[in-house]
């Protein structure tokens, strides 16, 4: 019971800490950029979501880690990473923005699904082994950056078009 409390407290504190970092440092650095320029660092970060494949590696995680959690979490992260890299490669063109939307919806749904599958499968924090830091440190960062990406994607179109025109003029 103590390990579950410590696990969820770690996630909660990490969400608070990353939210503070996002609010004070990341968003101010992104808010005046064009849509494409603001999305680039967020998508680049999510390009590392292939790290979720660690949930499939015995020795990194316990062999007792429920497959009902491990498989969807690992492959969902891999798809999210591929979508992030694809969107990044297509920006600032319109298909890149469309793929960024697809990535952001998929990626956030994947994280929510992983929490649901962990609870449903009765995951015990010790089963995560060395991958313990993915849900306690990495996932809260990913959640915060998904919120920021939605904020960027939802910015008024006129603000974004002017910024993207400036970007295209310099390339």
TrEMBL record:
Bilayer-spanning residue ranges: 6-27, 39-61, 73-91, 98-119, 131-154
Protein name stated in the entry: Transmembrane protein
Keyword terms of this UniProt record: Membrane, Transmembrane, Transmembrane helix
Species this protein is from: Anaeromyxobacter dehalogenans (strain ATCC BAA-258 / DSM 21875 / 2CP-1)
